[in-house]
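User: structure tokens for this one?
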Amino acid sequence: MMRLSLLAAVVLLFAVSDRCSLSADENDLFTIVGEQTTETITVQVTDPNDDPIEGAVVTPWALRYSQGHGHWLRNGKDISGMKPEAARTDKNGIANIAYPFYRDAAEKSRTLQVSVHVRHESFCLSDAVHMDVPSDDVFEIEMQPAASIQFRPVIAIDDDFTMDQIQVLRSDMGSWQNSFRREIRGDHVHVDQLFPGESDFLLVRLVDGAPTHFSDILEVELTPGANPPMDVPLRPAASVSGRLADNVPRPIVDGRILAMTVPPKSARDRVTWSTWAPIDADGTFLIEGWPKNQSIQIIGLTENHRVRSPEAAQNLSSHFGHPVVFDPPLDKPITLEMEPLHACRVQVKSLDDKPLDDVKVTAYPNVLWTNWGSQVYGKPLTRSADFFGNPDLLAYFQNRRDQPLYPSTFIDQSDEDGVARLKLPVGKWGLYVDDDQYEIPILLGRRSLDLTVSNDSENSIVMRLVPKGTDLLGDYDSLAGVVFGCSTREGERICALPEVREKIDEFVRRIQEAEDPQDPKILSEAFMVVSDAFLKAGDQDEAAKWRRKSLKMKVKLTQAISTEESSN
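Assistant:
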């Protein structure tokens, strides 16, 4: 599986079982907060000699549950009902980290993993730490002595150059906690709190927020403590011009391109430079302030088109969009071939076929960047030049997500007839809704509905919603863990048995192929398959739960048949 870069992880964070009650005196590590429970996991932070590190700041920032892994405040919302709080280690290196038992309090879907960053002025970690919960064990975190390095920029310019114009983009994890902090020391720029080992650096000169000069991307092997200083030449930035192919009608509406350098394929995080630019009405665009010797990968959107993915990339992963890559020299205008977005009609109804208006319907087509990671296609619009000194990078990304500069063709509100209209690329996309009263019924452990978009057919779907609270995702946590592998302990444990995997595959196939996935007959039979699977895995409680669900569907089916016979 591809490892996401730090920027990819940040971008993606903005982008899816009922508990037996205990009294506070039965377990002093949690307290009741409404219907939420606050629990605690204990960590001990040490150095390589196993000596405790005092004063390390442990900050929880992300949670995993059956629907996946994401920032604690998912899409800017506090769905858990409690805020993350950092804790500082004591003289024994101990800190207690509070987390919500229910990741989604309304859905009663429980937390399976807590992710933390750990910061200290003299020690570092290579990455975030992910801890499975609940756990009575003390989670041990070993930090390494931090490294530092100084760079002396070598730059030949005639205008007013000052050292405070030099910024350093780097690949280490800590950069996202301190907004790429650096210190000017005479004619050197000093960077510290770095993890020892291989690291990338890119020096850039910014004047009024715009890049004018770049260094090459430096690969440095850091050792603990102060590393030898380096002289680093900087050269003038380049500009990349281009145009959209003629198959896109002019004038261009809502056109924008996103560009990123192409990092080497690597198991570690790499430096990337990214930016975006508007597309003019005549189809031309200009990317200013580009590192001259770096390849460029580009995606783009207009009101009715997006950049066409290379054929080789499409065959590799057809459910993603892919960037087009151009190698230096980039001294001639480039042309971007485009492909159409297709109109999709989503009819939103209640179970009794009444149209529902003002329901937000959203799809999330992704782009898979070369050697980097994925994100929602064309969103958010960010520039690396904005990262330096930004007091809160997560807030920066969130703000650009919540306040887009262009309307999204992937989102619409249903009208008075219950119709939402989206424009999507060819592919199979999940549809989601956001509404105060209604939601998508749970299918295969998730609240989404798939829409297949093609070139040669009418792309429409009927989405029937249920009142909120009809069913809870918490009841489907174990199933989601099995079907989607979101939880190692819930998924791999069950799927390790071949006959169980076969039965689960049969369940998924029957649901997906059913004309009506909510058909009580199909659900009754499928739920019994799941019950048998958990029974074979030795999980009596889960087996009984799914057997009860199967029987409930049988009762529903019998009632429907009786009603139909009475009406005849």
